[in-house]
Amino acid sequence: MKAAAFDYIKAQSVPEVLALMSKHGDDARLIAGGQTLLATLNMRLSEPQLLIDITQLAELKGIELSGEHLWVGALVTHTEIENSPLIEKYAPILGAAAPHIAHRAIRNLGTWGGSLVYGDPAAEWPACSLAVNATMVLRGLQGERRILATDFFVDLYTTALAPDEILMGTEIPLANIKQVFSFQELARRHGDYAIAGLAAVAQKTGLTLSACNFAFFSIATTPVLAKKAQALVNGQILSTELIATAVAMARSEIETMDDITNSAAAKTHLVGVLLERALKTMLAK
Ligand SMILES: Cc1cc2nc3c(=O)[nH]c(=O)nc-3n(C[C@H](O)[C@H](O)[C@H](O)COP(=O)(O)OP(=O)(O)OC[C@H]3O[C@@H](n4cnc5c(N)ncnc54)[C@H](O)[C@@H]3O)c2cc1C
Q: Under 8 Å CB-to-CB from 150, ≥6 apart: which residues?
């Protein structure tokens, strides 16, 4: 199919974008990498009258050290994350996750911000943003506000971004020498969306993990932290028994959901499989 006719503006500044969004309201859509939006336009799932191209906005580009944080601009592409030495040093789980996103052509265009805002529960970046305790920086005509990743993903394809706001980028606390992580994904073929996935990050001292974040994706309407399993593991020696108890706890605490090919029961089983693999991987690091 072909998209309905629309007007197109290549915005030159954030204030221009905000003014256009305020003027056109629901008739306008922002376009970044276009890797999700163009498909929805072509399928006529969405028929905006105006596309506001944000790809020229320098403020939304770049990966930089900023005080205690790593700044990842909304327009940073999946490939840039995959290849960034700053990501490798300060948010290494993102570098490990990036190759699992689609294929090279899509990774070259698709953006960190577009994926976060779209809020696809099967996408890698929303779960990773939970795992690394990211803070979303949002800007609207009223000014800037910050919101934790844990409060950002509200429901299926629904985030806390207001209709008149733009995601500028995210602040990620810097990984220290004690940080360990494991990125686990089960997909039918490499590059497919995950059947189930897990972004796990923790601090490791000896055989003990603390500050655990176990963020699952492609199992429910949003990415989900296994909070009870995290609390169980935090500060305890990671024995075989503890791993088994954490696996059982994650399976019982997370309410999984069917997708078109996999049952909720299969996903519940995979939650345990992924957590066991992640804990053993982190233990071995
Ligand atoms: C064949 C195929 C396979 C894919 N496989 C995967 C996969 O395995 N895993 C995965 O995670 N993704 C996958 N994707 C999606 C891809 O990663 C997209 O790039 C990403 O989801 C959206 O980023 P984008 O920059 O293309 O956003 P766009 O398509 O340009 O925009 C998406 C939405 O976000 C809004 N938006 C974009 N940027 C901002 C901003 N800064 N502020 C406010 N709103 C904004 C837009 O208005 C739009 O509503 C796949 C896509 C395709 C076509």
A: 130, 225
Q: Considering its fold, how many domains does the chain have in total?
A: 3
The one-character DSSP state at 81 is H
Q: Which helix (H) or strand (E) holds 145?
A: strand 143-148
**Paired tokens of 109:** 């265009």
Tell me, yes or no, if the pTM score tops 0.85: yes
Tokens, residue 46: 């969405």
- Mean of the pLDDT values across residues 235-258? 97
In this structure, the answer to whether residues 147 and 216 fall within a common structural domain is no
**46 within some domain:** yes
In a shared domain, residues 22 and 62: no
Integer CA distances (angstroms), 134 to 98, 129, 175, 224, in order: 16, 5, 12, 14
Question: Is the model's pLDDT at 158 over the cut of 80?
Answer: yes
Residue nearest to atom 53 of ligand 1 (CA): 35
Query: pLDDT per residue over 33-54, tens digit each?
Result: 999 999 999 999 989 999 999 9
- For the chain, where are the alpha helices, taking DSSP H only? 14-24, 37-42, 78-83, 85-90, 92-97, 104-109, 112-118, 124-131, 149-152, 227-233, 240-253, 264-284
Residue whose C-alpha is closest to residue 208's, from 281, 128, 282, 275:
282
Nearest residue (CA) to ligand 1, atom 38: 114
- What pLDDT, in 10s, does the model give residues 55-70? 999 999 999 999 899 9
Substitution site in 6, 30, 188 for ligand 1 pocket (most atoms within 8 Å of beta carbon)? 30
Containing structural domain, residue 41: 7-53
User: Is the residue at 2 inside a domain?
Assistant: no
